[in-house]
Every structure is written in C-alpha cells, then in structure tokens.
Amino acid sequence: MIGDIFRTILTYPILNLMVSLYHILFSNLGLSIIMIAIISRLALIPLTKKQTEMTRKMTQLKPELEKLQKKYSNNSKKLSEEQMKLYKKVGYNPLGCLGTLIPQLIILSVLIGVIRAITESNTEGIYDFILNWVSNGTGQFSIDSTFLGLDLTQTYSDLSSEFGRVSIQAIPYLVLALIVGIIQFITTKLTTILQNPDFVKTKKKKKKSNEPDMEAMQENMQKSMIYMFPIMTIFISISAPAALGVYWIVQSVMLIAQYFILDFDRSKRGIQNLLTQFKSKFAKKK
C-alpha cells in the first residue's frame, strides 16, 4: 500500500519526466539527467531558504547564548533548558540542516530505479499519452544510455568485478566517483561559508567546558558533514549507476548557484572572507 502510494506520487512522475526530457533533448540520457538535477534543485529552494534562515537566526542568537552561558555556568541542566527555550522562541531548529538532505536522498533512490527501468525499456508506470508520444504510437521505445563515453547504467563495482579493479573498462567509473566526492567536499565547504559568511573571521579556539553548547554542537555537525558527505557520496557512486554521479555533480554546482540567488550579498561576503583568509595564510608562508 505504502509502496504503491510512493510510486504514484514520486517514482512515476519522475519516470515520465525523464522519458519526456529524453525525447525532447535529442535522445540524450545525460542531458535528461542534468535537467532532472536542475529541476529538483529548484524544487528544493524553499527548504534551502529555510535552512539559511535557521543559520541566520543562530548568528543573531550568539549574544544571548553567551549571556546564558555566563549566567548558568555552574548549572548545565538549567543552561540546556534556557537554550532550548530561546531556540523555541525564535523558531530555531538545531537539526534544520537535515531538511534538505532527506529529500535529496529520497530523490536519489528513486532516480536509480527510474534509470534502470527506462534503460530496460520497462514501460510500467509510464503514462499512456507519454508512451504514445515518445514511441510515435507504437508503444515501444529504447534508450541510448551512453554519455561522454560512459554507459550511465554501469557501475564501478560491477565492472571491477568483471574486468578487474584497475581495468580500462572500470577506471573511468572510479574516476567519476572520485570527482563526485571532490565536488561534494568543495560544495559542502563552500555552503558552510555561504550560510555563515563571517565564520572565517570569527573562528577561534573555545575554552574547555563540560557545559552543553548547542552552538558548538551545530558547528561540530557542520564540520563532520564536510568530510562525511564526500566519503558517503564516493561509496554510493562506486556501487550506483554512473548516471547518479552525473546527477550529483550537477546538484552540487546548482546548490552553490542557489545560495547566490537566495542572498547574493551574503554569499559574496562569504567568498571574499574566504579569499582573505587564503591570502593571509599564503602571506605567512612567504
């Protein structure tokens, strides 16, 4: 029952969109996936906007949080309670960063199934009017899964098992997975800065304390994500169809563009602060 609902409201619409885009974009599966990535990222703008607002609220709360830490320095339980009251008052959610992650993971899992279905010419779930349109009324269609010399349905895991881990057939797919991880690392690092453009200026060592600090927890979570996400994407890309790697790369680039669209001045300041930090480090090495 739940599976049927999931397919009806999510899998089948994405499947039909993919088939339609393939037909429109010169029978190019790679271009279709790129368009799906752009569309899905645009659909996530409200969630991304909410996440950036949460980060701004956290920045605005810093003075009040510091006051609470001084006031209840000897009462960790009371400090935690007052912090939670303050978060509730302004509508801040420390776990708000998960708001865009979960939808992305859902879309990724659906996309894998969709790609496998269309490349196997499986017409289940394709609306009749879409099928008639793309097949010119024959009810039959086929998909060319090659893009930039890669078969987008293939995985590094499968090819390495068949031909060897460092075989000519498998290496390009491993390279793609590594590129996905590198771009994910750059994207996660940049988005952290774009959400909090003054982070590179205010970053400093914190005093040791046994007191619960929600601000520190969030910062530690962000630091973990910078390394966790790239590693996770590499492992997923290794065992997933190459199409997923293409999708992930476009998604990452679009995320950076999205932050500039939502708040250009804030994002620009974050990049300028980062460049200033790099120049300072480079000057010290000289």
Overview of the structural elements:
The chain is mainly α. The chain has one domain. It contains twelve helices and two strands, in the order H-H-H-H-H-H-E-E-H-H-H-H-H-H. It has a two-stranded antiparallel sheet. Strand 1 and strand 2 form a beta hairpin.
Descriptive terms for the model:
286 residues, 1% strand, 12 helices, 2 strands
State the total count of DSSP E strands: 2
Oligomerization = single chain
The biggest sheet amounts to: 2 strands, antiparallel
Number of domains: 1
How would you summarize this macromolecular structure in one to three sentences?
The protein has 286 residues and is mainly alpha-helical. It is built from twelve helices and two strands; from the N terminus they run ααααααββαααααα.
Q: Could you outline the blueprint of secondary structure elements for this entry?
A:
Layout: H1 2-24, H2 29-43, H3 45-71, H4 76-90, H5 98-119, H6 128-134, E1 146-147, E2 150-151, H7 156-163, H8 171-195, H9 199-202, H10 214-239, H11 242-262, H12 264-285
Antiparallel strand pairs: 1-2
Helix pairs in contact: 1-2, 1-5, 2-11, 3-4, 8-10, 8-11, 8-12, 11-12
